[in-house]
TrEMBL record, chain A:
Record keywords: ATP-binding, Cell inner membrane, Cell membrane, Membrane, Nucleotide-binding, Translocase, Transport
Organism: Mycetocola manganoxydans
Annotated GO MF terms: ATP binding; ATP hydrolysis activity
GO BP terms: peptide transport
Compartments, as annotated in UniProt: Cell membrane
Top-level taxon of the source organism: Bacteria
SUPFAM superfamilies with a match to the protein in the record: P-loop containing nucleoside triphosphate hydrolases
Topology of this chain in the membrane: Peripheral membrane protein
Entries under Pfam families matching the protein: ABC_tran, oligo_HPY
Predominant subcellular localization, coarse grouping: membrane
Protein name: ABC transporter ATP-binding protein
GO cellular component terms attached to this protein's record: plasma membrane
Automatic annotation (TrEMBL), chain B:
Matches recorded under SMART domains: AAA
PROSITE patterns named in the record: ABC_TRANSPORTER_1, ABC_TRANSPORTER_2
Keywords: ATP-binding, Nucleotide-binding, Transport
Provenance organism: Mycetocola manganoxydans
Protein name: ABC transporter ATP-binding protein
Record field: transmembrane: none
Length: 289, 262
């Protein structure tokens, strides 16, 4: 049997080298399996997006990868050292091997280009052999898949609701069937029913095509439901990593415990938890190097 | 100030290459001072369209929007006053902040423009606002540019900006969607305090049924532009009448039952 690790991250440290440097990712070590859905949770500002940008080689100064490596074990049987990718190689790497649904995805679409053209452009860039008719059919199929519907192909981004735009970005990330999809808060504007349909689709596609997903959110109940494993991040560090069930039953870290406890219950006592948000023990200061 | 009322409001859009779309279909409600109404519903059901009509970024195709019984002012000084009293937190914090200006700039303008602050105590006001939304240390955060902030941090800037002119009505479109629970509850509690102490009226748009229930007096459920159910928050969640509300409630993640030992 071959090793089925898709991504290995070792001793990863990222710092924003500003006047008061921010050590946003600290000593992260992580192995992601092929076909796995890994949930990444943690409070606002703890470094989730920064880590995801590192893996996608999207960091810009003043962000610096201080130490560490990220290796993608391609299904073609060779390794890709992500930190060492050249500009030309990056073009092939992004979208094709690793795709990303950006946080704030509803703002990431080009406002003056129709949905049809934005989806079509991914195919014409990465699959130049595809015919125009095929491109249109693929794009329409993707819109159906995510529940926006093919009759919105000719719409422009501002004519779609926030959640619809978010779903178009998910469609773009799925378009080329990459080996890894990083989804950064992809469902903040989606109601639970739509959210569920989409996650179901992603899960089916995953078993069909065998890709892995890193799913970033602060929504722990959602993560417990969809993830194989969950990593909990606190001030740049991964403080806990385990199966969803283990994390739910026996969290190791007090922070995880607190995350699990502070969710308001939908049908429980009204107002019981209100004010528990102002937890004095919370460390609010940022991680400063 | 100030009861805002929607009376039989509808909004139609044209969809390219297809027929017309009724994004909002004959919706009526009234938002009273000191009350919070939660607006929940399907993605694309018309929630943001309602919000945009309330702050006059969109005009209804038919129906009326009334402020204390009179049509809302549409121009001039009346409109300027209205704009101060009715503030909005937009759904997308990534689009609504100016990338060229630091955090403090976004707060300075509403504070000075609406005479909520003098030059002399501006600094203190800014830091107080940032602290209230838990963007700390405020003295450091105030000089950051939007791209130097995480998603949830930007969302809190947007909230602070809306609160700066001390509005009497706040339209908050998914204001806490990117915040983790502890900060989320902190921000919602802050809105709750303002509602009680300063009589703030809040329209809270969310897809999170749990916070809708715990932080609102009333819930309205929107489905394809139509209000299919509305009433006291507990009634709507604990005893939903409409099929869509039931499905929405039953689909909410529930770890207790997922890992229940058989
Ligand atoms: N360009 C920058 N300069 C300085 N600090 C930055 C910069 N970009 C991000 N940061 C800081 O780095 C830390 C990590 O940010 P990151 O965006 O990774 O957080 P996050 O976990 O994704 O948070 P959220 O859940 O709110 O999106 C935050 O404290 C943020 O303020
Ligand atoms: N300018 C426009 N032109 C055409 N259609 C529009 C326009 N603005 C909104 N729509 C359509 O109106 C409907 C309602 O959109 P709205 O943004 O109000 O939904 P929403 O309830 O806020 O959804 P979400 O939860 O996804 O943000 C959608 O079908 C949307 O595509
Ligand atoms: Mg983020
Ligand atoms: Mg919306």
């Amino acid at each position: 049997m071959t090793d089925d690790t898709l991504l290995s991250i070792r001793d990863y440290n990222i710092v924003y080298e500003t006047e008061r440097p921010v050590h946003a990712v600290r000593d992260v070590n992580l192995k992601l399996q092929r076909g796995e859905i890994l949930g990444l949770a943690g409070e606002s500002g703890c470094g989730k997006t920064t880590l995801a940008y590192g893996i996608n080689r999207l960091l810009r100064p003043p962000a610096v990868i201080r130490t560490g490596s990220a290796i993608l074990h391609d299904k073609g049987g060779y390794d890709i050292d992500i930190n060492a990718l050249k500009v030309k190689e990056l073009r092939e790497y992004r979208w094709d091997k690793v795709s990303m649904v950006f946080q704030g995805a509803m703002n990431a679409l080009n406002p003056v280009i129709s949905i049809e053209k934005q989806l079509g452009d991914i195919f014409s860039t990465h699959r130049p052999q595809m015919s125009k008719a095929d491109r249109r059919e693929e794009s329409a199929g993707l819109l159906d898949l995510i529940g926006v519907g093919r009759d919105r192909l000719r719409s422009f981004p501002h004519e779609l609701s926030g959640g619809m735009r978010q779903r178009v970005m998910i469609a773009m990330a799925l378009a080329l069937k990459p080996q890894l999809m990083i989804m950064d808060e992809p469902t903040t504007a989606l109601d639970v029913l739509v959210q569920r349909d989409i996650l179901q689709e992603i899960s089916e596609l995953r078993s069909q095509f065998g890709f892995s997903v890193i799913f970033i959110t602060h929504d722990l109940p959602l993560l417990l439901e969809i993830s194989d494993r969950i990593a909990v991040m606190l001030q740049g560090e991964i403080v806990e990593l385990g199966t969803a069930e283990r994390i739910f039953r026996r969290p190791d870290h007090v922070y995880t415990e607190r995350l699990l406890q502070s969710f308001p219950s939908l049908t429980g006592e009204r107002g019981g938890f209100i004010r528990s948000g102002n937890d004095e023990t919370r460390t609010k200061d940022e991680a400063i190097v | 100030m100030s009861t805002l009322e929607f009376r039989n409001v509808s909004k139609e859009y044209r969809v390219r290459g297809a027929s017309k779309l009724k994004a909002v279909d004959d919706v009526s409600f009234s938002l009273e001072p000191g009350k919070t109404i939660a607006l929940v519903g399907q993605s694309g059901s018309g929630k943001s369209t309602i919000a945009k009509m309330l702050v006059q970024l969109e005009r209804p195709t038919s129906g009326e929007i009334l402020l204390d019984g009179k049509p809302v002012p549409r121009f001039g000084r009346g409109l300027r006053d209205y704009r101060r009293h009715v503030q909005m937190v937009f759904q997308d914090p990534f689009a609504s902040l100016n990338p060229f200006h630091p955090v403090e700039h976004h707060l300075e303008r509403p504070l000075l423009l609406h005479k909520r602050s003098t030059r002399a105590n501006l600094d203190a006001e800014i830091e107080q606002l940032l602290t209230r939304v838990q963007l700390t240390p405020a003295s450091e955060m105030r000089s950051r540019k939007p791209h130097e902030l995480s998603g949830g941090q930007r969302q809190r800037v947007a909230i602070a900006r809306a609160l700066a002119p001390k509005p009497s009505v706040l339209i908050a479109d998914e204001p806490v969607s990117m915040l983790d629970v502890s900060i989320r509850l902190g921000v919602l509690n802050l809105l709750g305090d303002l509602q009680r102490e300063e009589n703030l009226g809040v329209l809270y748009i969310t897809h999170d049924l749990a916070t809708a229930r715990h932080f609102s007096d009333e819930i309205m459920v929107l489905y394809k532009g139509v209000v299919v159910e509305s009433g006291p928050a507990d009634d709507v969640i604990l005893n939903p009448q409409h099929d869509y509300t039931k499905r929405l409630r039953d689909a909410s993640p529930n770890p207790e039952s997922q890992f229940a030992t058989p």
